[in-house]
Amino acid sequence: MSEIPLRAAVITVSDRVHRGVYEDKSGPAAQASLKELGFEIVATVVVPDEAPAITDALLTWSSKAELVVTTGGTGCAPRDLTPEATMPVLERLVPGIAEKMRIAGSTFEPRSWLSRGVSGLRGRCLIVNLPGSPKGVIESLDAVGMVLIHAIRLANGDTAH
Ligand SMILES: Nc1ncnc2c1ncn2[C@@H]1O[C@H](COP(=O)(O)OP(=O)(O)OP(=O)(O)O)[C@@H](O)[C@H]1O
Ligand SMILES: Nc1nc2c(c(=O)[nH]1)N[C@H]1C(S)=C(S)[C@@H](COP(=O)(O)O)O[C@H]1N2
């Protein structure tokens, strides 16, 4: 078993959750799926659909975890800008993870193609944008769970295949 810790931070991007209009169900859904994959959840954060807040949270937690996932704000609505706030933080893209999530999602929800989420690496940390709905979170993590872990092991120097 690899010695690499599997610490994950979950960032919920939602104006309405941030304002308390409704309870965050997507963040807890991500936590549950990640725990099943063997991750320790080191942070759960809620931020509005504001680029500085999203970018700051990514910068903070990418230095303290091997995986940071965001949920929400990946769509085409005017305030959906999570991908745009994520790109400046990434050093290397891992586009296949986002592509696989969209392809897998399309079997459940044809509108999965409208998630503009990105995925990539900052140092040894893998960052992945998930869609905002709890259903989208679960479906997406189910589709890429093991791929995430392999990517993290490689990024952290465990290159055994
Ligand atoms: N964190 C969340 N918890 C529970 N439900 C959510 C969450 N994010 C999204 N959803 C559900 O998915 C739907 C579409 O996602 P959308 O991105 O519009 O929500 P949102 O990010 O909370 O929106 P906004 O940022 O405008 O408040 C929402 O109407 C809601 O039903
Ligand atoms: N697997 C999966 N992906 C999904 C969905 C879903 O239900 N399941 N919802 C789609 C919808 S309806 C939208 S609008 C986009 C963007 O959602 P977001 O803006 O909440 O991130 O995610 C898409 N991706």
UniProtKB/TrEMBL annotation:
It comes from Acidisarcina polymorpha. GO terms for molecular function: molybdopterin adenylyltransferase activity. Pathway: Cofactor biosynthesis; molybdopterin biosynthesis. It is an enzyme of class 2 (transferase). It catalyses: molybdopterin + ATP + H(+) = adenylyl-molybdopterin + diphosphate. One of its GO terms (biological process) is Mo-molybdopterin cofactor biosynthetic process. Its EC number is 2.7.7.75. This is Molybdopterin adenylyltransferase. Residues 9-151 form the MoaB/Mog domain. Keywords: Molybdenum cofactor biosynthesis. InterPro entries: MoaB/Mog-like_dom_sf (IPR036425), MoaB/Mog_dom (IPR001453), MoCF_biosynth_CS (IPR008284), MPT_Adenylyltrnsfr/MoaC-Rel (IPR051920). It holds the Pfam family MoCF_biosynth. Catalyzes the adenylation of molybdopterin as part of the biosynthesis of the molybdenum-cofactor. PROSITE patterns: MOCF_BIOSYNTHESIS_1.
